[in-house]
User: Which sequence fits this backbone?
């Protein structure tokens, strides 16, 4: 499924048709959604499996490379999907000049949160400052 | 917007005070609402990860907050929101393949989303209680 099957020939030729970045937004939302299905199911199942477990056991599990990779993937996909979804909501309900600032703030916040989560995961994975 | 209780002023166009809620419209706004709720949960997820990376004290503070009864109520709501958004989202993805647009299919898939969300919420909480009991 490539983007060229969905764009009009004129849109393709001029680079962007009247939909501008609309299709890319829609497509990326779908891609992140599909990626999030296994990632969130895995995360939920993992949380359930660790119900009531001690801190050391939990951190030990989080520190394994596979889990670290999956958690970082989850963070990236989650905040990308969140940013796209919130963008649509803001565009639907805010029409004054506030809209631009709201869109910027949302996108920046999602980016900052994703990075914070990744840094926390790296700290856990590399064992920095985590006393057991 | 004042409204005479005896004689209803006619709306100029259907709006949310007049239009009867249907499975289609309710699930649609539910998907958006749960999306917003999950966005806030994403923030909590990062807070929790930062707490976990900061050591056992910060982490146990967070755990205690979650284990309190308002925390548990919140978690139940979040769990249901997650499954509703997940199942609703999958329903959207199926539509994106241009399938399931017959009215009967719309309604059966809609009820399936509601039922699946309830079942998955209960199942996950049950599983969590069983695992926590074994730990």
Assistant:
């Amino acid at each position: 499924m490539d983007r060229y099957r969905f764009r009009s020939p004129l849109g393709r030729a001029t680079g962007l048709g009247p939909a501008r970045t609309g299709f890319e937004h829609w497509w990326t939302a779908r891609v992140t959604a599909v990626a999030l299905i296994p990632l969130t199911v895995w995360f939920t199942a993992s949380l359930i499996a660790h119900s009531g477990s001690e801190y050391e056991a939990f951190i030990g599990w989080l520190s394994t490379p596979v889990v670290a990779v999956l958690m970082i993937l989850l963070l990236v996909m989650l905040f990308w999907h969140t940013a796209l979804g919130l963008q649509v909501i803001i565009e639907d309900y805010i029409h004054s000049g506030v809209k631009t600032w709201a869109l910027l703030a949302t996108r920046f916040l999602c980016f900052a949160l994703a990075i914070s989560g990744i840094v926390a995961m790296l700290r856990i994975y590399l064992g920095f400052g985590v006393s057991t | 917007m004042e409204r005479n209780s005896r004689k209803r002023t006619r709306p100029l166009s259907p709006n949310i005070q007049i239009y009867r809620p249907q499975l289609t419209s309710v699930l649609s706004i539910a998907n958006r609402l749960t999306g917003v709720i999950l966005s806030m949960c994403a923030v909590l997820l990062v807070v929790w990860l930062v707490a976990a990376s900061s050591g056992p004290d910060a982490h146990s503070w967070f755990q205690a907050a979650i284990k309190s009864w308002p925390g548990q109520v919140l978690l139940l709501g979040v769990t249901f929101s997650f499954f509703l958004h997940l199942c609703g989202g999958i329903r959207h993805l199926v539509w994106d393949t241009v399938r399931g647009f017959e009215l009967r299919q719309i309604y059966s898939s809609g009820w399936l989303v509601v039922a699946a969300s309830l079942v998955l919420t209960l199942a996950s909480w049950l599983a969590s209680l069983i695992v926590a009991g074994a730990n």
Summary: Residues 79 and 111 of chain A are 7 Å apart (CA to CA). The longest helix of chain A spans residues 65-93.
